[in-house]
Amino acid sequence: MADIIQLLPDSVANQIAAGEVIQRPASAVKELMENAIDAKATSIKLIIKDAGKTLIQVIDNGIGMSETDARMSFERHATSKIRKADDLFAIKSFGFRGEALASIAAIAHVEMKTRRATDETGIKIIIEGSEIKEQEPCSTPIGTSFSVKNLFYNVPARRNFLKSDSVELRHIIEEFTRVAIPNSDIAFTFHHNNQELFHLEANQLRQRIAGIFGNNYNERLVPVEEETNIVNVKGFIGKPEHAKRTRGEQYFFINNRFIKSPYLHHAVQTAYRELLPEESFASYFILMDIDPKMIDINIHPTKTEIKFEDEKSVYMILRSAVKRSLGKFHLSPSLDFERENSFDLPVNHSRPIVAPEIKVDRNFNPFTQGGFKEKSVTEKRNTENWDKLYSGFTKNEPDLSSHEPERTQHTISPQWSDSEDEQKERECFQLHNRYVVSSIKSGLVVIDQQAAHERILFERFIKTSQNNKGYSQQLLFPETIEFTTDDFELIKELSEEINALGFDINEFGKNTFAISGVPVVIEQSGAKNILEKLIQGYKENLQELKLSKHENLARSMAKNVSIKPGKKLSQQEMNTLIDELFACEIPYTNPAGKPTLTMLQQDELERRFKK
Ligand code: ADP
Ligand code: MG
User: Fold this and answer.
1) Does ligand 1 come within 6 angstroms of the Cβ of 73?
2) 486: left (phi > 0), else alpha (psi -120 to 50), else beta?
3) Mutation pick for ligand 1 pocket among 58, 60, 73, 125 (CB with most ligand atoms within 8 Å)
4) How far apart, in whole angstroms, are the C-alpha atoms of residue 556 and residue 551?
């Protein structure tokens, strides 16, 4: 019998490869746009007809190609971007497999025109089904233009499986967006059936996002920025109040490459958790730079997953960066911070910066300015927060020196007080035994006493349970308390965490616990009641939320023992409440995301008193 194995002809091999690389018009758009960026274009035009089924054209003003390179570019595994296997670990370009053009040319009618700045004439190549039809000099601008016509003309199965124009167009817009966001220094236009869909000038990231998603994004976004020696994070996140019920715009880029990462998504979502109602999603546009050595992008060409070393640290850094940004900017526009016309970080230029008086720090406490008595609150908290944010780093500790609080001088500074007579106690009063009202320079602030107290207690409980040393006071007479079997088992399971909050409970016979100590915040007489309510709240939380045991218990406790509406507060209690609230990591909402305070701005007041 004769041998039967043969090598496939190139055209067939290319067509098979094309099946992997080019799945739909949007994949060709992505490959061509990425090639243009790799060619250092500063302006890229995308022209589409019939959702890419008839025409996909990408015109760039990049470096162009020589005649030989132009011809070579359509060969499989032909690339200018890597030469040896080692280069795979230092990839800075989008492409490196040398497969895209060969694949596209195998399944479409392609016309390419290209010219380098140093060449007088350009070169035109027409290639159809991997077969060169024409190759000749031509006059063409510097850069490269690819026209891809009749995609999948020779792969009917593929062509028939394409979705409606509107669906395919949506895919193209998505690919376009993923390329356009991180490359904001490149100008893009996008026409579909002679209609201009996007016109994006080279610009800052923020304006680029607004250019793509609409101008109202300008005010919806707050910056995130963090530099560490593992990863540099920059970008923007949506303010919680603009979160959407459906998944919002959520984009991660690593070294300008769009990636999907449920893991990192979780980091962001966790940072938001207490600020968002359940089941809502904030938008984010986060760019991370990581040493290419630390990541593995040598995976399937169309996959957007990425593997990287030290994923855990990236997670922690990302989460803390988002958290901090939220804490810092959440309410900033409604406080007294000047809004800039430029979209840069909102640095307050409205008063001269005099070093010692305005010692801004990112965890500012607007109430402690002016020699207020609890001056140490903010300072103390800085380090505490720090410990908390990074408590996840045990080994493998990244260099966090750049995180020193002193560094963040760009922090917005509140205009709390104006003059020296602010040295005296702040003025506040209680309204309906329910709200604490105080004046601030820009107007007044109304604080919900229960929500605020819940926030304060919650953060305290979280901290103590993490350190495993909640302050406990011993009861004079231990109390015993009998539970249902279910609850008894649950408490047994949680006993370590419960004791970490400051309780001292121990098993005491069948279905019974003895309480010998309670957290200091609790009045001794209520021990039994509180423990019951704690478990009740814990179970309720279980039904709707995915919280850690610690967090769930801390929430439940905070809700239980917080001061309730109807409780009259003394002047000192109100002051302490305000101080402690603003010493919190996230002062603006209670643990369930309900606001703790609202403001009435002076200009709003003035507006209301206009005739
Ligand atoms: P890869 O991008 O993985 O190298 P491609 O098949 O996409 O593979 O492209 C092959 C080669 O063709 C590239 O390495 C590059 O040298 C050249 N090339 C492709 N597109 C352009 C372009 N728009 N401008 C200049 N050169 C290009
Ligand atoms: Mg490429």
Assistant:
1) yes
2) alpha
3) 73
4) 8
Q: Does the beta carbon of 39 sit less than 6 angstroms from any atom of ligand 1?
A: yes
Q: Is 116 in the pocket of ligand 1 (CB under 6 A)?
A: no
Tokens of 345: 């970080």
Among candidate residues 232, 272, 277, 219, the one with its CA nearest the CA of residue 592: 277
21 CB near ligand 1 (under 6 Å):
no
Rounded to two decimals, what is the model's pTM? 0.61
Q: Tell which one of 22, 101, 110, 298 to mutate to probe ligand 1, the residue whose CB is within 8 A of the most ligand atoms.
A: 101
∠ CA 479-485-489 to the nearest 5 degrees?
80
Strands 472-482 and 504-507: unpaired
Q: What's the rounded mean pLDDT across residues 236-259? A: 85
Residue 395 in this model has a pLDDT that exceeds 60: no
**Residue from 29, 33, 38, 88 whose mutation best tests the ligand 1 pocket (most atoms within 8 A of CB):** 38
Residue 445 pairs in a beta bridge with 438, 599
Sheet holding 131-138, edge to edge: 131-138, 122-128, 109-115, 143-149, 55-60, 43-49, 187-192, 195-200
pLDDT tens per residue, range 265-281: 989 988 887 777 667 78
β-bridge mates for residue 513, sequence order? 481, 507
pLDDT confidence of residue 543? 75
Q: Over 50: is that where the pLDDT of 123 sits? A: yes
Cβ within 8 Å of residue 521, ≥6 positions away: 457, 460, 502, 561
Q: CB of 128 closer than 6 A to ligand 1?
A: no
Q: Going from the N-terminus, what domains does the chain have, and what CATH number goes with each? A: 10-202 (3.30.565.10), 208-328 (3.30.230.10), 366-611 (3.30.1370.100)
Single out the residue of 119, 160, 158 nearest to residue 139, CA to CA: 119
Nearest Cα to Cα of residue 242 among 195, 204, 282, 198? 282
Closest CA to 316 of 281, 371, 271: 271
Which residue's CA is the nearest one to ligand 1's atom 5? 98
- Kindly state the helix (H) or strand (E) to which residue 449 belongs, with its residue range: helix 449-467
Ligand with smallest separation from the Cα of 96: 1
Per-residue b or e along 48-80, where b marks 16 or more CB atoms closer than 10 Å to that residue's CB: beebbbebbbbbbbbbbbebeebbebbebeebb
Q: Which residues pair with 232 in a beta bridge?
A: 227, 289
Tell me which H or E stretch contains 318: helix 311-329
DSSP 245: S
Confidence band for 224, pLDDT divided at 50, 70 and 90: very high
Closest protein CA for atom 16 of ligand 1:
80
Decide: residue 270, CB within 10 A, 0-12 exposed, 13-18 middle, 19+ buried.
middle
pLDDT in tens, 360-384: 344 444 443 333 333 333 333 333 3
pLDDT attached to residue 309: 77
**pLDDT exceeds 60 at position 306:** yes
3-state secondary structure 190-217: EEECCEEEEEECCCCHHHHHHHHHCCCH
Contact 337, 385 (CB under 8 A): no
Q: Which comes out higher in pLDDT, residue 426 or 264?
A: 264
How many angstroms is it from 366 CA to the middle of ligand 1? Answer: 55
Strands (E), 353-471: 428-431, 435-440, 443-448
